[in-house]
From TrEMBL:
Name of the protein in its database record: Ammonium transporter AmtB-like domain-containing protein
SUPFAM superfamilies found in the cross-reference section: Ammonium transporter
Organism lineage string: Eukaryota, Sar, Alveolata, Dinophyceae, Gonyaulacales
Record field: transmembrane: 5-22, 37-58, 70-89, 95-114, 126-143, 181-206
Topology class, membrane: Multi-pass membrane protein
Organism the protein comes from: Pyrodinium bahamense
């Protein structure tokens, strides 16, 4: 449990507020009406996804425990924000709600799984940023709305489409959609490999030199032995 529930809630809302700058600021500037509309679209999608993720997790936890779990609500909000970030400017608002709802479910499931297998992740960093981040990269390829929902948005920005050199739009046929999904899956695999290899190397070196702390829990016998001097005092 957190040492301060008010500070946890405050921190969540600070992150939520800052996320508007993270994604909305990527528009760059408001020199045209199109850019201003795009920034508004980004902000709306973020708000919807975060709210849907938070509410789903909050209601699910209440149904499971019959208690109001505010920390899970905060986690659901962050899960929604992570889930929408990959495709925040490329999907329509209904998809943003869908992304937040699925992200909330993924967060709950992965968080429970990590606790079940004994992984120490007190702030649910992997459940929120890892699992929901992978979900975001996958759905961004499937629901890229492009122009009129029949073309790929891609990296072009605004409501333009990802097109050929001739200026025509690249339609989202089966072959092109498959390429988008494969590219995003390859991106996930690359990120996992990069972070996994570097982490293994760094922590391996620390372990060799004895610089990692001992995270093995004390046995009951050891705890009793440690308490004896205090009891005698």
């Amino acid at each position: 449990d957190p040492h301060s529930l008010p500070l946890s809630v405050l921190g969540t809302f600070v992150l939520w507020f800052g996320w508007y700058g993270l994604n909305g600021g990527r528009v760059g500037h408001f020199h045209t009406v199109e850019q201003a509309f795009l920034a508004g679209h980004v902000a709306m999608n973020m708000t919807l996804s975060a709210a849907c993720g938070g509410l789903l997790v909050f209601m699910t936890r209440y149904a499971m425990t019959n208690k109001y779990d505010i920390i899970s609500l905060c986690g659901g909000i962050l899960a929604g924000l992570v889930s929408i970030s990959a495709g925040v400017a490329n999907v329509e608002s209904g998809v943003a709600c869908f992304a937040g709802l699925i992200g909330g479910m993924i967060y709950l499931g992965v968080s429970c799984l990590l606790k079940r297998v004994g992984v120490d992740d007190p702030v649910d960093a992997f459940a929120i940023h890892g699992a929901c981040g992978m979900w975001a990269v996958v759905y961004a390829a499937f629901f890229d709305m492009g122009v009129g929902f029949d073309a790929a948005h891609g990296p072009s920005g605004g409501w333009r489409c990802f097109g050929h050199e001739t200026g025509s739009c690249e339609t989202k046929d089966k072959h092109f959609s498959t390429q988008m999904v494969v590219a995003n899956l390859a991106g996930i695999a690359t990120i996992i490999a990069w972070s996994g290899i570097l982490s293994a190397a760094i922590f391996g070196i620390l372990k060799v030199f004895g610089l990692l702390g001992d995270m093995t829990p004390d046995s009951p016998e050891k705890e009793e032995d440690d308490d004896e001097p205090l009891q005698s005092i």
